[in-house]
Write a structure and sequence with these properties.
The complex is a heterodimer of chains A (282) and B (460). Chain A has 282 residues and is of the alpha/beta class. Helices cover 28% and strands 31% of the residues of chain A. The chains are: A alpha/beta (282), B alpha/beta (460).
Chain lengths: 282, 460
């Protein structure tokens, strides 16, 4: 079955790309919070990517990825009309979305794409959505326009101050929570960011959901590669998550485990770059 | 049967047992007494007519031998390699008491390998005898392990269209993701799968039933019956301190990386794998032996198998245990893991063991291990593999609340028909019994297929 790419759009040149492809059996059941596992070539690895959007009428789903290593780089070689070898999903438990009032959704890096689908879900059931997005600099911000379509407000933070607040998303969050009553905070992004968000919201005692991104293999609960500690218990992020109560997650353990294959990932990417005549970027 | 020398084989992933040649096979087959009332067949969970196929081998008629086996067994090359024959056909052979039963498993393997060598079913020109779908009936199987493959093979032979939905990108279940290449070459599994496809069986990979689609969707697509053969794939952990350190793996993950993802060929294959120097495998079953022998082949200096009872109580097949010991795997028995210790980067460094002794026999007559107070041991290790069993995978079960489960969380079936609490939905294999064997899974697939054939009014 061909997972044919119908649209490819560079969001941040050389970094982040959005791909819309045919997946007629996945699109109708995909919900916010779900992800897919893809494989790009016969000898390829299985990697998880969030379903950033879907279009059941056209039978397509959207993914947004950052090129960080071999598999994402291989994916980036594919063009409109090409097919992705394997796509399995929708996986993971969907986000619990119910009408509850005001929800703040925070995204960092490519996490903004995943957050976008969740935020849209909250808006669709009538919650007031405040979106907070952050990046190193304004050119690396994603989905600002799309979020503006359904968010009551889109707040921006950049490290270099090129747009919005100069500093971190957590500072924007902190001052927002100081003046507003919020029912839930959702954060998707780098682990350090999610950990910092959890610390801020704890202060205000606001229920917080994070979407974790551990290394996965099968994505259907058969290996335990994706295990995380939540409230002192082992959970498999692919089937029990990937979303969990931020105040109960052991973020430090997750950060360690993400480094499990650092050396081998570098070796693999170096080989890829040599084969494809690319400079390794950081 | 000839085998690769242990010193050579720990450096490769090629098959350990080399198989008979024609002369050896005929000599072995001629030892068969051709009993009037053979007991071997009763020992076989899928009812292979051993007596007849062995007679054909003795006469050098390998085609006929193959067709005899294939009547009831759709995966003979696999079964000949991985079945615990000592408890089945060979265990029931009238010569068993002499200690020299007929080597039925080896003969079965020889017959299947010879047949496939002559008739590669993927070669179009030779497909005349391969049967295609003839009837308008269609049925579905979920999962592509031995139970589903047998279910599919039985019905396809009778002209029914069968579609298999498999969650992973490659079909075969444990045969491809669990059992290592050196015991069951993937090529063998592929040949068996090609033989099924040539009979009209369709295999749809990347379909997770319970998420991509559910049982009702399958019925809505016009399938008249569904067989659930999703295995017992959820790995158990020990619940010990330090179990999430980098370097601690479930056997499922370790073996999946090596077998399904071919990580032993990294970096030509993209999936990385830890190459442990001092490896500890926890558990005493076949899965533990497979993990330990795999680690050796990947260059480990030392591989320990840690088990809390003694060698006598180990559940692994004798043959597998001996293969492991011959290859240099060391046993650390009467030892029970207490905690894993790591460094600041979260990397595994040591495993702490509690020394045990065997106590009084319990109700089952087995002597249970009890800790010796104050006696601990530390092993330096950079790779620990936990092989202490699996449980039912909840994904499909949670998505299908109408499906009745037993107390252990496995699917409850009618033992006569294989049918679940949902009409026309059948189940079998590890998802019904808990982790068992290839041939028992096949037997369950066959039983359900017979019932389906009956309901669709086909002659069995
Ligand atoms: C549920 C889930 C959803 C995800 N959604 C997205 C998404 O929508 N878009 C996206 O770009 N990425 C997403 N990720 C992360 C993505 O899976 C990894 O970036 C990818 O596996 C990297 O593969 P690679 O071969 O290109 O790089 P690798 O060579 O595997 O890794 C290169 C670098 O990326 C880091 N890395 C590896 N795996 C992960 C991971 N799982 N999470 C974070 N960093 C990792 C490594 O530490 C290393 O520094 C998601 C992860 C999960 C678990
Ligand atoms: C390492 C190892 C070594 C073994 N060695 C031996 C041996 O030597 N001899 C022996 O007889 N037995 C052995 N066994 C046991 C034997 O492999 C199993 O008993 C047998 O494979 C069970 O078959 P099954 O058909 O029930 O399912 P499995 O082989 O477990 O296959 C189930 C399939 O279903 C798929 N699946 C799961 N959930 C879904 C879903 N929701 N939708 C779609 N597909 C799904 C899985 O991906 C998998 O491919 C071994 C097991 C292991 C793990
Ligand atoms: S990725 Fe294998 S269990 Fe979650």
């Amino acid at each position: 079955m061909g997972f044919k790419i119908v649209k490819k759009r560079v969001l941040i040149p050389g970094r982040v790309t959005e791909v819309v492809f045919l997946a007629p059996d996945i699109a109708p059941t995909a919900k916010p919070g779900n992800f897919v596992i893809i494989r790009v070539r016969e000898n390829g690895e299985r990697i998880p990517l969030t379903i950033a959007d879907k279009n059941p009428e056209q039978g397509t789903i959207t993914i947004v990825y950052l090129v960080v290593g071999t598999t994402t780089a291989l994916l980036d070689l594919l063009q409109e009309g090409d097919e992705i070898l394997d796509v399995c999903g929708p996986l993971g438990k969907p986000t619990k979305i119910e009408k509850k009032g005001e929800v703040v959704c925070i995204g960092g890096g490519t996490g903004i794409a995943a957050m976008h689908h969740i935020a849209k879900g909250h808006a669709e059931v009538g919650n007031k959505v405040i979106s907070i997005i952050g990046a190193r600099t304004k050119d690396f911000l994603l989905f600002e326009e799309e979020l503006a379509k359904f968010s009551a407000e889109v707040l921006v933070a950049t490290n270099d101050g090129s747009k919005g607040h100069k500093g971190l998303v957590t500072e924007v969050l902190d001052s927002y929570l100081a003046n507003h009553t919020v029912q839930e905070v959702v954060a998707v992004g780098p682990v350090v960011m999610m950990k910092a968000v959890a610390e801020v919201t704890k202060k205000y005692n606001v229920f917080t959901t994070v979407s974790l991104n551990p290394i996965m293999v099968d994505g259907i609960g058969m290996c335990g590669a994706c295990r995380v500690s939540v409230d002192g218990q082992v959970k498999f992020a692919c089937v029990d998550g990937p979303e969990f109560d931020a105040h109960k997650v052991d973020f430090d353990e997750l950060m360690h485990r993400l480094n499990s294959y650092k050396q081998q990932e570098e070796l693999s990417y170096k080989q890829f770059c040599e084969c494809h005549g690319k400079e390794k970027k950081n | 049967m000839p085998e690769q020398d242990p010193k050579t084989r720990i450096h490769n992933f090629s098959e350990v047992a080399l198989g008979y040649n024609l002369e050896l096979a005929i000599t072995e087959a001629k030892r068969c007494l051709q009993c009037k009332n053979p007991t071997c067949q009763q020992g076989c969970p899928v009812d292979v007519d051993c007596k007849t196929f062995i007679r054909f081998v003795a006469e050098g008629k390998l085609e006929e031998a193959y067709l005899t086996i294939q009547k009831t067994n759709s995966l003979p090359a696999v079964c000949g390699r991985v079945c615990p024959q000592e408890n089945q056909c060979e265990g029931s052979c009238k010569l068993a008491p002499t200690g020299q039963p007929i080597a039925i498993g080896r003969l079965e393997r020889f017959v299947a390998d010879s047949y496939y060598a002559k008739h590669p079913c993927d070669d179009d020109k030779k497909q005349k005898e391969c049967i295609g779908p003839k009837s308008r009936h269609k049925v579905a199987a979920i999962g592509s392990g031995p139970s589903s493959l047998t279910f599919a093979g039985y019905l396809a032979l009778r002209g029914i269209k069968v579609t298999i939905f498999e969650a992973l990108h490659e079909a075969g279940g444990v045969l491809v993701y669990g059992i290592p290449e050196f015991r069951l070459p993937k090529k063998i599994v592929h040949t068996e799968l090609e033989a099924l496809k040539a009979m009209g069986v369709e295999i749809k990979t990347n379909y997770v039933v319970g998420s991509t689609l559910n049982l009702q969707d399958i019925f809505d697509q016009g399938y008249e019956a569904i067989f659930i053969g999703v295995g017992a794939g959820l790995p158990r952990f020990l619940g010990l301190e330090g179990e999430n350190l980098i370097g601690v793996y479930s056997a499922n993950e370790y073996l999946t990386r090596v077998n399904l993802m071919r990580a032993y060929k990294f970096p030509d294959y993209d999936t990385p794998l830890p190459r442990g120097q001092n490896v500890v495998v926890i558990g005493g079953g076949n899965v533990a032996m497979d993990a330990a022998r795999t680690a050796l082949r990947l260059g480990a200096k030392k591989v320990y198998v840690v088990y809390r009872r003694t060698q006598q109580e180990m559940p692994a097949r004798r043959e597998e245990l001996h293969h492991a010991l011959d290859e240099g795997v060391r046993l650390k028995v009467l030892s029970s893991p207490v905690k894993f210790l790591g460094d600041e980067q979260g990397k595994l460094q040591k495993l702490v063991l509690q020394k045990m002794e065997l106590g009084e026999p319990d109700a089952s007559g087995r002597r249970s291990p009890i800790p010796i107070p104050g006696q601990f041991e530390e092993i330096v290790t950079d790779l620990a593999i936990i092989a202490v069993g699996t449980r039912s995978n909840p994904l499909l079960l949670q998505a299908t609340p109408q499906l009745k489960l037993n107390q252990r969380g496995y699917i409850e079936i009618n033992p006569d028909t294989g049918e679940t609490s949902i009409p026309n939905v059948f189940a079998g294999g590890d998802i019904v019994t808990g982790a068992a064997t290839v041939v028992l899974a096949m037997g369950a697939g066959r039983k359900a297929a017979q019932e389906v054939a009956k309901r669709l009014k086909l002659t069995a």
